[in-house]
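Follow-up to my earlier ticket, as requested here are the two runs.
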Amino acid sequence: MDVAEKPWLRSRAWWWARLKRPSLAASLLAAASIVFLSLLQRTSTPAGAPYSRPTTTVVASSASLPAHRSCAGFYDAGPPRKAVFSIKEFGGIGDGRTSNTAAFRQAVERCREFGDKGGAQLNVPPGRWLTGSFNLSSNFTLFLDDGAVILGSEQRIDDFGVNKAFFWMLGGIVKKYSFSLKELRFLHMYGTYTFAGYLIDFDCEGAACSSPPVTTVCRMIQYPLHVVHHYLQVDCCMHDNLSTTTCGRAVVSSDIYNPSSMSTDGCLGAAIMSMRLIKHCAIGHNGSIDGQGKIWWDLWWNRTLEHTRGHLVELVNSTNILISNLTFLNAPFWTIHPVYCSNAVIKNLTVLAPLHSPNTDGIDPDSSTNICIEDCYIESGDDLVAVKSGWDQYGVAVARPSTNIIIQRISGTTPTCSGVGIGSEMSGGISNILVDDLHVWDSAAAVRIKTDRGRGGYITNVTVTNVKMERVKVPIRFSQGSDDHPDEGWDPNALPRVNIIHVSNVTSIDAEKAPILEGIEGAKFDGLCLRNIYLSTIHREAKWHCEHIDGEAYNVFPLPCPQLRSNATSSKCLH
């Protein structure tokens, strides 16, 4: 055999001599770099590209993780629905021009008749189905076929006289996010967002009434300014008359929900709404729901917004929820917002909004329990996923925490916010959160914990593991300074408690700054554990910035701040 024809048969000495040549060594190094970058590119999907979901899940070992580490058991599908309808049966026309608001509402009402008989499914076939807002029902499935697009109406007042949304009564959120009666009276005099003649149960606080009644007639008004959490305010009176003696703020019973009793004047709730429902689904073969939110973004940017914007999908006080295999586009405000919910699975979604669009969060679980969010690709103008639980004194009073939440295999980009944010509205408490397999790029932060004085509440038992990022400004950020409060009644002495935060297995390329970890004076963030963190190529500030924090670090580059004791020996941090 001719060795010249078979160069791989040459002696090891011959190969070693040539490997030492600078030109060959450089070529091999370049080839290795190309292979490395190719492997990296497989997980570095550029904005706008299809999202390839991982097929395996890597779970960190930590005592702080939720009891469940998959979506199994969070949602009970039950037997197939007993009845199946098509939106066409109710006069729906999918031409992108004809309003289908009445068709959707009639269809849901028809499906509601099967609520105690095994439920019903409403199919939306291929087409562009323009509609105003509509409500879901219990034991109900909304199914969007491939090529089906539900389009939110771009008319500020739809054919039912409601501003792209059906006015919704929110119950406990009245107290959770609230305003003074003085502000309420002013708004009522101004003539905005009013309905009357609605009987509810309530518990009176600070009552001035001589004999507080069990039921009363109330007026409800939605606060008309753009602030993230300005929802509803209630003024409860003895005889439906604002001039009579009031009973102060009320805790409203949310199980009384009768939209037909309400008269509205351009108020905005959500495009698709659920209230106190069980076993309902929004699924499909990658059909789409497009909020067409540009008119609302423009109003916000121009500071001409008269009413707060609605979420694209609002789930309130509901349980056993499945949202999967859909694309959500162009939300006016937050995209998917489960609040006071339990046992919800949100998976296999694509959520898209222009990167400059304001407050277009992807998925925001709020004061909810047993929530699993997985296998989603998100591009937005705000947090991809944000966990919340109430705002300042109102969130503290209601005390509805967000707990047992899994967020896994999430990929996306947001230029101004984070891949996963916790807070800053966290006054009801946030605990037992697992973030696993997160990939972000071209973003402000990968993981962020946000809070401030006045919030109260707590953030505890949070595990973040297996995070990859490229071109992220600050890879890990824990910060104070949210500096927004609902009214003058917030308590500056209400300090949040943040502890037992584990962050591990993090890689970053091309960051601008090293991590920023800022606790609050008098409320140190403690029990922090950071391990196996490699932050390559930090362009501006490679030194960690730490204030009012305490914890441990192990196998972290670049060298962490002194407050994170290196070479940690704590079993809680090492395992």
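Run two:
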Amino acid sequence: MAVAIGIYGGRVGFTTLPASLLIFGGLMPLMTIGQLPTLAYYALSPRKLSLDEQAMIHGGKIYPYAEMISIGSYVSKAATQIRMVNGKQLLLRWDVWLGCEIWERILEAKTLPHLHRKACDALERGEKVGFGPGASLGQKTLSLREGDVAITAISSIRFVNESNMGAQRRILHVADERRELTVDEDQLCNQHVLLTLLAEKLAARDADETVSAEKS
């Protein structure tokens, strides 16, 4: 491709220009073509986004929180992906709206009650609850892609920011006394529900240990 661009430049009298400039100039149309989906998104994406008491309004359409079944990070928080109960998927790219962290926190707070209740009902039935391809939770065990860890053995839960070739990623680290398991945030959905359930289970574990210590 570079050679072809250089030959074309020579034919039309651009041989006096630096070769690097010729190559870069020839690649510019290709770069622009490759970015067409992004450019189209900016041109066509609805600019109106509001979070009301019972629903999100996006581009003039109403999306009730109670009908949202999945909320997940997309490309390390560059966007939030939402799945509705009717199968419709939304992609909220936060570089379009200001104050993205506030929007996301409100969205999580609004969806937490019904998603938490749904997850608790499934756990009480003895079912495992999935949180995307990266994690699932049972009554006694947290399963990540790298393995399982007993909830009673968890010693720390934390997110770590990592950079790979300029791209920022958030990695969830879950450790017990023997090892530390990790999963990319992009492999999780409804992580606000997962973290809430884990916090509740760990609080119950600590309370049981305190009672046992007092009795002994």
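The only thing I checked on run two: The helical segments are 2-11, 19-34, 36-44, 100-124, 191-215. Let me know what else you need.
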